[in-house]
Amino acid sequence: MLRIAITDATIGRPDVDPDRGSFTITLNAARDQLVKAADVITDTTINLVGTIGHHVLNNLMPDRRLRTTPRVVKRAISNYAAKTALGRIRGPSYKATITINILAGEGP
C-alpha cells in the first residue's frame, strides 16, 4: 500500500521517477495519519495525493546514478573449485612417469 501511495504521488509529475519516493518518509507519514487521524473526513473533495503524497513529494531522494556495468549474480563463496566449460579449474599439471617392474622368480 505504501508503494502505491508513492506511485500515486509521483504519477502526476512526469519529471519525477517513482524510485525517488522514500519508503521511510511514506511509512512515517502514514503512521502519523493513523495515530492523529488528522484530516480524515474534513472535506468531501477527493485528493489522490493527500497528506502522505505531499510528504513524499516534499522529501524526494536524489536521482539514482547510472550503472556502469550490468547486473550479475555473485558467485557464492565455496570451499570447492568452480566448474568451467572445460571442467574444473585446477593448479598446474606435472608430467608423470609410470614404471612397471616385473620380477621373475619363485611363485607364491
Task: Give the secondary structure arrangement, pairings included.
Blueprint: H1 2-10, H2 23-36, H3 50-58, E1 83-84, E2 87-88
Antiparallel strand pairs: 1-2
Helix pairs in contact: 1-2, 1-3, 2-3
The helix-strand sequence is: HHHEE
Strand content: under 5%
Low-confidence segments, given as residue ranges, are: none
Tally of DSSP helical segments = 3
> Which structural category do the helix and sheet elements fall into?
mainly alpha
Shape: rod-shaped
Question: Strand sequence of the main sheet, in spatial order?
Answer: 1-2
As a percent range, the share of helical residues equals 25-40%
Can you summarize the main beta sheet?
A: 2 strands, antiparallel
Distance between the termini: 87 Å
The total beta strand count reads: 2
Mean pLDDT: 77
Rg from C-alpha positions? Answer: 33 Å
Task: State the gist of this model.
The chain is mainly alpha-helical and 108 residues long. The protein has helices at 2-10, 23-36, 50-58; strands at 83-84, 87-88.
Give a verbal description of the structure.
This protein is mainly alpha-helical and 108 residues long. The protein has a domain at 2-58. It is built from three helices and two strands. It has a two-stranded antiparallel sheet. A hairpin with a 2-residue loop joins strand 1 (83-84) and strand 2 (87-88). Helix 1 crosses helix 2 and helix 2 (23-36) runs antiparallel to helix 3 (50-58). The longest helix is centred in the first third of the chain and has 14 residues, at 23-36. It starts with a helix and ends in a 20-residue tail after the last strand.
